Amino acid sequence: MAYSEKVIDHYENPRNVGAFDKNDPTVATGMVGAPACGDVMRLQLKINDDGVIEDAKFKTYGCGSAIASSSLVTEWVKGKSIDEATTITNTDIAQELALPPVKIHCSILAEDAIKAAVNDYKSKQNS
Ligand code: FES
Ligand code: FES
Predict the structure, then answer these.
(1) Which residue positions does the secretion signal occupy (predicted)?
(2) Ligand 1 center to residue 20 CA distance, Å?
(3) For residue 73, how far is its CA from the centre of ligand 1 (angstroms)?
(4) Is 37 a catalytic residue?
(5) CA 79 to CA 92: how far, in whole Å?
(6) Do 110 and 90 touch, CB atoms closer than 8 A?
(7) 69-to-2, 51, 58, 110 alpha-carbon distances in Å
(8) Model pTM?
(9) Angle formed at CA 70 by CA 80 and CA 112, multiple of 5 degrees
(10) Residue closest by Cα to atom 2 of ligand 1
(11) Looking at this predicted complex, what is its ipTM?
């Protein structure tokens, strides 16, 4: 199966790979796995006092589409509020990357990772 040019670009030049200190109170971590294939994605968001995402990093153990989806998402969430970030859907990601149907679950992983990170942030705020 051929990957789209955008997938190849993100796969060969992934943006924002890495990690923040998960004990930093301004860092939210979302870790999700895809039951379909066993791939794992970790997305971290650095969130300021106004609830705006200042920076994002990811580490994905998975296929090219999963890496591209998470790379794309780190670019999209920067400068967004956490509420805006949770409106990003897997459909947006799949369209941008022109993912074929069998790779849709890779984009779902990225959507779920955003939601997991935001939930982590909210639970840290309440603790
Ligand atoms: Fe093997 Fe996603 S199915 S990397
Ligand atoms: Fe499973 Fe891409 S995340 S094949």
Answers:
(1) none
(2) 25
(3) 19
(4) yes
(5) 18
(6) yes
(7) 16, 23, 10, 6
(8) 0.93
(9) 75
(10) 63
(11) 0.71
